[in-house]
Write a structure and sequence with these properties.
Elements (H helix, E strand, L loop, with lengths): L13 E5 L9 E5 L4 H11 L8 E6 L2 E6 L5 E5 L2 E5 L4 E4 L3 H7 L5 E3 L4 E4 L3 E6 L5 E5 L5 E4 L1 H10 L3
């Protein structure tokens, strides 16, 4: 019987390389297919040490500020350079950009569904197949509807194991 001795190794330099591009020598490389970028991001989020989303965000409504629990947010919507967090009652301005928010809450129940929206999958009331391979989402306690664009449908379905 062979015994393997485990030793603590120095952290390796890791490179993410898109399939078809040159692979750097003498380093650890993860080769990925651009079609599966969502899977790669979820994998990285699972293995990232001590990565946690904040339990709440600060939203601004007029001249006042309010703490917002992530679990109360239905979706985030970017309008121009301003990001809004929508709850069942109202929308609050958030100081982050959409891409920053996507990274900040990546390990929660949120997923980007088009170029302007990140949604909380736990607040979805109904998933409706839509024209052209798209999906329409309805939310609990809201009349708001958000479309999952064709570019995001595959990742959305994978996220929900559909």
């Amino acid at each position: 019987m062979n015994t393997i001795k485990a030793e603590k190794a120095e952290p390796a330099e890791v490179h993410l390389v898109e399939k078809g591009l040159p692979i750097p020598e003498n380093s650890l490389c993860l080769v990925f297919d651009a079609e599966h970028l969502g899977d790669l991001l979820r994998f990285i989020n699972k293995i990232a040490p001590n990565r946690q989303s904040p339990p709440f965000l600060i939203g601004r409504k007029h001249e006042t500020f309010q703490p917002l629990l992530l679990s109360d947010i239905l979706f985030f919507r970017s309008c121009g350079n301003i990001l809004y967090a929508h709850t069942e009652q109202q929308a609050y301005e958030i100081k982050h950009k959409l891409f920053e928010m996507e990274k900040l809450i990546a390990c929660e129940n949120f997923i980007r569904v088009n170029k302007s929206n990140i949604i909380n999958v736990l607040k979805i009331k109904e998933i409706i197949p839509w024209f052209g391979g798209r999906i329409l989402l309805r939310f609990t306690a809201s009349e708001e509807r958000i479309e999952v664009s064709r570019n995001y449908v595959k990742d959305f379905k994978q996220f929900l194991n559909m």
